[in-house]
User: Fold this.
Amino acid sequence: MKNVKFYFLVLLLAAAVSCKKDGGSSSINIKGNVSNDEAADMVAASMSSNFNGVAGVSGDVTVSAQAFVNVHLACGATKSDSVSRSYSGTQVSYNYKLKYSYTLNCNSSNVPDNLSSSLSYSGSYDGPRIASSNSGSSSFTVAGLASTATNFGISGEYKRDGSFKSKVDTTNAGSSHIDINVQSLVVTKIGHKIASGSATFTITGNVPKKGDFSFTGSIVFNGDGTAKLTVNGTIYIVNLETGEKTKK
Assistant:
């Protein structure tokens, strides 16, 4: 009888230790990853014009491309430009400093063919769901400089690194890296609005004491001021001006 009791006690202790280990491991895994929604918030901000995202940068580079053509600059001409943007409201505030560098490239007939642009920036934004201080870069090529072209075409890469703090789950604060690869983004020559295009992205980061996180997905620009953002299979519609998103 004593042996049976001892064996039963050993089983209980082993089960308790196992539960403690499993519970600890599960907690770490759950806390280690930010949610789909929080990842979507960060990517949406990196897309929107209000938060110095792809939509804002695409407007800047196409305006400069048109200016290069209008003043008939020579092939290989370069130009640098500095821009500051800030806004403070009840729901949204941001402050960014941008430094652009442009080069006009011509074809074999010495006719302007495309404009290459590089950007470095730093700043911060504070929105309803997330706040971030960040810096980054972009490298975009703007095609469609010919007067016969009705739209500009943009391809290239946009990057953002920095810190973030979720306002939905205040325990989620850490570092993030966002990389958006833009393919054939179409921007109108009148109004410099995004008409169509697509992109892919990766977002990685770390929440101290919780662990690393990683998400991948795609972006489809709808041509109506919104884009479809897919994060690990979850679809959101993003307002390209404000960065606000809704789950579809």
Remarks:
- Residues 28-247 form one domain.
- Helices lie at 2-32, 36-47, 54-70.
- The chain has one domain: 28-247.
